[in-house]
Every structure is written in C-alpha cells, then in structure tokens.
Amino acid sequence: LWRFGYSARLLKTNHFRTAASNTSFPAVWMLLAQYSGTIPARFVVVKKNSFFTMPETVPETDKANLELFSPHPGVRGMTLLNRAAFKRTVVVPVLKVKKEIVNTLLKSLKHTVLQRPGLKRVVEDTEDEDSRLVILDPHKIPEFSLGEAEQEVLKQLNVCPEVSKYNLELTYENFKSEEILRAVLPEGQEVTSGFSRVGHIAHLNLRDHQLPYRYLIGQVIIDKNPGITCIVNKTSIIDSTYRNFQMEVLAGETNLVTKVKENNIAYELDFSKVYWNPRLSTEHGRIVELLKPGDVFFDVFAGVGPFAIPAAKKKCRVFANDLNPESYSWLLHNCKLNKVDNKIKAFNMDGRDFLLGPVREELSKELPLLKEEQKTSFHIVMNLPALAIEFLDVFRHLLVGEPCSTAGLPTVHCYGFSKHDDPAKDIQERAEASLGTSLAGRCSTYLVRNVAPNKEMLCISFQIPADVLYKRPCP
C-alpha cells in the first residue's frame, strides 16, 4: 500500500487490516510508521522514478536552514524571474587553516564543516596565500564558539581554534528550487510543484494559486534540472476519446516531440498529441511479466505501445489498437524503432469495433484448435480507466459454440478509476454489471496508483467465464 500511494486515512479501514494480515512484519511496520509520521531508516526504500516532488512541509530540523539560506526577501511576489534579485550575504563561521592540512581537517570535522550542494567549503584567504578559510556550519557552531570535541581535534592538528566571521555571498545558483519558490510565493501557501518527466519535457499540473507564477516556476525547474529543456502545464482535463489534454508551454523550447526509455525500451512520441504517463512504467512491467513466449496478447487501447512492444519482444503474438490516429502513427513508428513491426498487427479502430472484429476473429480461429496440454494463454488488456469497464459487455456471447478448453479462456486485465470507500469492491461490482455475471472468487484486483485525493486507479483481472463468452447453438 505504501509503495503505491495509499494515504494514511486508509490505515483506519479494512484495507489496512487486510493488508496487515497478509504482509510481512517490515511492510506492516512501514504502514504504521507512515501513519505515525516516522519511517524507520532501515525500512526506507528509495526508488528512482520519473516523478519529482518538492516538499510541501518543512521539518523542524530544516527551519534554521531556511532562515539562513533563504533568498533576499525582496523577491516575494515576483512573477517574472530576475535572478540577480536573489543575491544576499550571510555571515558564517570560518577557521583559518594551512592549505597543506585542509583535507585532513575536512575529514576530521566532517560533521561541523558546512555541507551544502553548490557552495564551496574552502575559500581563499585574501590576507595569506599559504592559508585557506574552511567554512563551518553556523548551526553547529552556536555563538561562533567551538565545542570541546572540535577544539581537541584542532589541538591535535596544531590549528588555532579561533573562529572568525566571513561574509558569504549567496546567489540564485546557490538556492534550491523549493527555496526559491518558497521565497517567491505568498507566505502560507504551499509551494509543492511536482512534475512528471517525459524525455526533455517536464509536465506540471499547477494549482490555481500557483498560476500567476507559472512562467517563473517553469524557468526555475529548467535552471535546476539538467536535461529538461521544455516545461508544460496541463490546462484541461484528459480528453476521454483520445486521452490527451490541452497544455501550455511555460518555459524553454516548444518542441514536444520527445524520446523516453521505459523498462529498457525506447519510445518516441509527440507529448501534445498522445497519452503517455511515466508513473505507469511499473504497471506495464507487471502485466508483461505475466506473459509467456507464444501467448496471444490483445491491447485494446494501445497508445504508443508500452504494453504491446514489450509483449512482442517477449515473443508473444500481439494485436494492438488505438482510436487516436496520432497514437496509431506513433505505435507503428515505435514498432519499427524497436524492430518488432513484423510481430505486431496494429489497428486504428474504436475499441468496441476492435473487440467485435479482429479479437473475435482471432479467438474464433484459435480457441477451437487449443488442446488441454497446450500452454498458450490469451490476454486482453483494456487500459482506458475512465471508460474501459463499460466495454466489458462486448464479451457477452462474443463467440458461438462450446469451449474446447476452459484453461484457454482469455484473461482480461481491465483498468478503472474509483472514488469509493472500498475501491476494489466497487470495481468488481461494476465489472460484474457489465458482464452480467458474478466474479466472486474468479477475479483479482490490483491497486495501480493513487490518482488524486480519494481517487484510485485499479486493475481487475479475470478469465472470461465460459457461460459469458460463448453463446450455445440451439439444439
């Protein structure tokens, strides 16, 4: 639950009790720790991802840092970035040290020396070319006076323990993104500015109070994140037909054709015209992991191919479809890019027509030939969370005849959103309504991610019951 974004509120519900009863001690401890606000260091898992966030709240231990390392207060309310206005000078403690022993001193006083990315810990001594000034952390040196432990270290190194004051100049380059935004936005308003990275593009979803500062926010993200050259902000909800949305370029170049790599496979796409979500990489990998070479894979809403192409590389026979002409075009392009164009049959159709046409035709041809000892599996992926469950009624009497092998019945992986208190139950009940049968004991639900507060994305997987899929001929 912790990995996929369940909020602490769910710990009070049956979700937590169910998870706790089926989870190892570290995982349960992680859930309890998240609820209490403290996560033990030994259980923290850091995962590199394509989603980045800036902290919304400030820990007590960092408040002193904010006071010292904050931009000039005159930047408050700035809407167009003026980097020069962030300059300020702070007074920090320094030790005068002979340059020959600087490295030794840094190792001996590593917990006392200033540790801040982008700032030099050692600077020139303008009055003595044989010496250097080592900058100390002002929070570790109260009243510019060293403690007994530090003084003992200096005594062993034959260094004068006298601490001097040094005027340290901080510029825009020395401040972190969240420090800059916290200084600019009105006090008391959250500065969280999470973004998804899609190649050279950073995709933001700014809130209303951040919009007056959107161009500044965009430029700051470019400045502080090497490799990002274009910032876009979503300006409308996702179109349910083509799964893309209107966006505004806030900073950088206007080139929205990008290249991304997911699970060691490269994709190219026009981010303004097709759907791509880097937060789904784990889910793409999970489904592909279920496949075996020789399986038949139908992707009803294929997009640019994040399910279909890895399946083809796993030597499955793949049928991939998308209604959006742009997605279909980039799907063909990515098939060639990854050298699987001869393993994927691509279609540009409505999802319902794809199921009633190519999918029914292939199942009608393949399933009667399937023998009990054969291990070929058929998988149908329906990743259109806003609408996919409504398409499940297509499977009612899709085929005519008798099933030759119940083991060969196709497995459906259907995605949906839920705002229900029990999202798994909600998804199952809606799927049962579309299919016209109960799935009790015949399905599994998987939490994919938390989309928004009180909105989950789930995947329900099940084998289509024979009495649903087949229409028996009249005697």
Automatic annotation (TrEMBL):
<dbReference type="Pfam" id="PF02475">
    <property type="entry name" value="TRM5-TYW2_MTfase"/>
</dbReference>
<keyword id="KW-0808">Transferase</keyword>
<dbReference type="GO" id="GO:0052906">
    <property type="term" value="F:tRNA (guanine(37)-N1)-methyltransferase activity"/>
</dbReference>
<keyword id="KW-0949">S-adenosyl-L-methionine</keyword>
<dbReference type="InterPro" id="IPR025792">
    <property type="entry name" value="tRNA_Gua_MeTrfase_euk"/>
</dbReference>
<keyword id="KW-0963">Cytoplasm</keyword>
<keyword id="KW-0819">tRNA processing</keyword>
<dbReference type="InterPro" id="IPR029063">
    <property type="entry name" value="SAM-dependent_MTases_sf"/>
</dbReference>
<comment type="similarity">
    <text>Belongs to the class I-like SAM-binding methyltransferase superfamily. TRM5/TYW2 family.</text>
</comment>
<feature type="domain" description="SAM-dependent methyltransferase TRM5/TYW2-type">
    <location>
        <begin position="195"/>
        <end position="466"/>
    </location>
</feature>
<keyword id="KW-0489">Methyltransferase</keyword>
<dbReference type="InterPro" id="IPR030382">
    <property type="entry name" value="MeTrfase_TRM5/TYW2"/>
</dbReference>
<dbReference type="GO" id="GO:0002939">
    <property type="term" value="P:tRNA N1-guanine methylation"/>
</dbReference>
<comment type="function">
    <text>Involved in mitochondrial tRNA methylation. Specifically methylates the N1 position of guanosine-37 in various tRNAs. Methylation is not dependent on the nature of the nucleoside 5' of the target nucleoside. This is the first step in the biosynthesis of wybutosine (yW), a modified base adjacent to the anticodon of tRNAs and required for accurate decoding.</text>
</comment>
<dbReference type="InterPro" id="IPR056744">
    <property type="entry name" value="TRM5/TYW2-like_N"/>
</dbReference>
<dbReference type="Pfam" id="PF25133">
    <property type="entry name" value="TYW2_N_2"/>
</dbReference>
<dbReference type="InterPro" id="IPR056743">
    <property type="entry name" value="TRM5-TYW2-like_MTfase"/>
</dbReference>
<dbReference type="GO" id="GO:0070901">
    <property type="term" value="P:mitochondrial tRNA methylation"/>
</dbReference>
<protein>
    <submittedName>
        <fullName>TRM5 methyltransferase</fullName>
    </submittedName>
</protein>
<keyword id="KW-0496">Mitochondrion</keyword>
<dbReference type="GO" id="GO:0005759">
    <property type="term" value="C:mitochondrial matrix"/>
</dbReference>
<keyword id="KW-0539">Nucleus</keyword>
